[in-house]
Amino acid sequence: MYPPKHHQDYNTETIKSVAKAYPFATLVSSDGSVPFITHAPLIFHNDKLVGHIDRNNPHVNLLKENHFVTAIFQGPNTYISPSIYTTKQLPTWNYIIAHAHGKAKTLVNPDEIKQSIVRMTEFLEGSNQKFILDIDDPRMDRLVPYIHCFEITIDSWEGKFKISQDKTSNDIENAKKELIQNNQKQVADFVNQMYELHFSSH
Fold first, then answer.
1. Full residue range of the structural domain in which residue 194 is found
2. pLDDT tens for residues 47-57?
3. How many domains does the chain have?
4. What are the tens digits of pLDDT across the range 161-185?
5. Count of H helices and E strands in the chain?
6. Phi, psi for 83 (deg, rounded to 5)
7. Backbone angles phi, psi at 5, to 5 degrees
């Protein structure tokens, strides 16, 4: 099995916590030799994953009728320089990733679809909810025909946690600090750069 056992997590609740903290998933399906890849937020409901994508997305044909799908939830990741270690090491990359493998089924009831949108909005708003989506908002009725709502029944979870587990306790702590610091700085710098590049070209 890959990665090595010491770079995996076998506690389902721990693995699911990655999906809850980083719900923007990469959905991967295959139609013969052709891969289909779509990015969309997924949330839990009754221990299944529920999401919505544009009905015109060709991936729709594989997110129904119990087609197999993998959802990838990528948590923090970063380059780890040997300079942070107290022992002599080589450069590496650390990451926290969850894979959910399961089968997709279409949700077709309009009221059920609208409720799933309300539920997702509530989850994504977080504990300090500043916006409440009204299920009776007429815009919801206009939206439903244009989206494909689906749920994924999970067959198995994989937790791929490469966080310097094979190093000394001091080096594990240093790698943890690096993972936190680099993600905070890299996200801020990258978002600022992308906004500048994107909007300056329009």
1. 5-200
2. 999 999 999 99
3. 1
4. 999 999 999 999 999 999 999 998 8
5. 4, 8
6. -65, -20
7. -55, -35
